[in-house]
Design goal:
single chain, alpha/beta, Rossmann fold, 6-stranded mixed beta sheet, 3-stranded antiparallel beta sheet, 10 helices, flat
Length: 364
C-alpha cells in the first residue's frame, strides 16, 4: 500500500489585476490617497518591470477598478479619480494582513481573562448554585440528576441544593486611543516614518472592527495641537510643519477615555521625537533644542495623571537617541506603562503583541 505523498507547496501565481492592485494599495498610503500620483508611480513600475501584457493593459486595470467600485471619478469632465469607501476598507485589510499576519482566529467580540464570573462564554467548570446566579447558567441535566439521586423518583422535586451552574469566562472590554505624531520630524532627514505609522493605525482599526467589535478605538493626531480623526481619514493623513505637542495629545486622549464606560483604558503613542511644544497663557511655547524643562515637566505630570485614572500608556519610540530614550524611560516609569524602542520594520509586531497582552487583563 502506497502512503501519502507530499510535494513542495507552490503558491499560485497572482493574476495581473491582483499584482497591480496590491501595488496600488501600497502607493495610495504613500501618496496620502492621491490616486493620480499613485497611478503615475504605478505606470512607472509597469514600464520598469513589465507587469501588464498586450492583452491586459493599464487602461483595463483602471476600468476594472471602477467597475468593481474601488475608484470613482470626481467629475467626469476632469477625469480626476478618487478612492471609494470600498477601497479604504481594502487598504485597511491589506495593512491588517501585513502587520498582523500571524493573528490567530478566535470568536469575535470579547477578550478572555483568567477570571470566571457572569461573563459571556461558557466554560467546562461546574459548581453549586449560589443566590444571584443567572438562570441561563443553570445546568439542568446535572441539576435534575442530583434531584433524582437525592429525592428519588417517588418524591421527585428540585431544591436549591440540587442545582448546578456552569461557570462563564469573565470577559473584559478595552477602550484604546491611538496617538500618531504628525510633526515635521516624521519625514525629516529623508526618512519616511509617517507611512508605517498610518499602516499600523489602519491595521489596528481593522483588527478591532473585525475581531473585537465591542471594543472602542479612537485615533488622535498631534502636532502643534491635537485633534481626532475618523478611521476613513487615515489613508489621507499627512505630516505638517508642526512641532510635537505631546501634552495636547494626552489631554485629548484623557478627555475621550473619561467618557468611555469600559474599565480597561489605554493609550498607544507612536512618536519619533521629544515633546517640543505646549500651549501656555494662550500662546504656543516652543523649543526644539534639547529637552525643555517646562515642556518635559508638563508632559510627565500628565503621565502621572493617566496612572491615577488607570490609563496605561504604551509608547512606541521611533528613535535611538540616548537622551530621548532616557526621557521615555522616565515618562514610562511615572505612568507605569510600557515603552518600545523600535525600528520602522518592527512597529506593527510590537503593537499587535502589546495590544493582545493588554486585552487579557484588567488594567487598574
Amino acid at each position: 500500500m502506497i502512503g501519502n505523498r507530499f510535494s513542495q507547496f507552490k503558491e499560485p501565481e497572482k493574476n495581473i489585476f491582483d499584482t497591480l492592485f496590491e501595488l496600488l494599495q501600497e502607493l495610495l498610503v504613500y501618496t496620502s490617497g492621491d490616486v493620480d500620483e499613485a497611478l503615475a508611480w504605478l505606470n512607472q513600475l509597469d514600464k520598469q518591470y513589465q507587469i501588464t501584457t498586450p492583452e491586459y493593459g493599464m487602461g483595463d486595470f483602471i476600468q476594472e477598478l471602477k467597475d468593481r467600485g474601488f475608484l470613482k471619478e470626481d467629475e467626469p469632465e476632469s477625469g480626476k479619480m478618487q478612492i471609494t469607501g470600498k477601497m479604504e476598507q481594502s487598504i485597511r485589510k491589506s495593512s491588517l494582513d501585513q502587520i498582523f499576519g500571524k493573528l490567530k482566529k478566535s470568536s469575535p467580540g470579547n477578550h478572555k481573562t483568567t477570571h470566571t464570573g457572569s461573563g459571556d462564554e461558557l466554560t467546562s467548570d461546574k459548581r453549586d448554585y449560589r443566590y444571584g446566579d443567572a438562570p441561563d447558567q443553570i445546568d439542568f441535566n446535572e441539576s435534575l440528576k442530583n434531584a433524582y439521586i437525592h429525592h428519588g423518583i417517588q418524591d421527585f422535586h428540585l431544591d436549591e441544593s440540587d442545582m448546578v451552574v456552569t461557570e462563564k469566562s469573565h470577559t473584559a472590554q478595552t477602550s484604546t486611543v491611538l496617538m500618531i505624531d504628525i510633526s515635521h520630524s516624521m519625514i525629516l532627514y529623508g526618512e519616511d516614518r509617517i507611512t508605517p505609522a498610518k499602516k499600523v493605525a489602519m491595521a489596528l482599526s481593522e483588527l478591532i472592527k473585525t475581531k473585537y467589535p465591542k471594543d472602542t478605538l479612537d485615533i488622535i493626531v498631534f502636532g502643534n495641537d491635537a485633534w481626532q480623526i475618523e478611521m476613513k481619514d487615515i489613508p489621507y493623513l499627512q505630516v505638517g510643519p508642526y512641532h510635537t505637542n505631546t501634552v495636547a495629545g494626552l489631554e485629548l486622549a484623557m478627555d475621550i477615555l473619561r467618557r468611555r464606560k469600559n474599565p480597561n483604558k489605554q493609550i498607544f503613542m507612536i512618536t519619533d521625537g521629544k515633546p517640543t511644544c505646549i500651549i501656555r497663557n494662550g500662546k504656543y511655547y516652543k523649543n526644539s533644542f534639547g529637552l525643555d524643562t517646562i515642556i518635559v515637566n508638563k508632559t510627565l505630570n500628565l503621565a502621572a495623571q493617566c496612572r491615577k485614572l488607570g490609563i496605561r500608556i504604551t509608547t512606541f519610540m521611533i528613535a535611538r537617541d540616548s537622551y530621548l530614550q532616557q526621557f521615555v524611560e522616565e515618562f514610562t516609569e511615572i505612568n507605569q506603562g510600557k515603552a518600545f524602542y523600535t525600528s520602522l520594520k518592527g512597529l506593527g509586531d510590537f503593537i499587535f503583541e502589546d495590544y493582545e497582552r493588554n486585552r487579557r487583563r484588567n488594567v487598574r
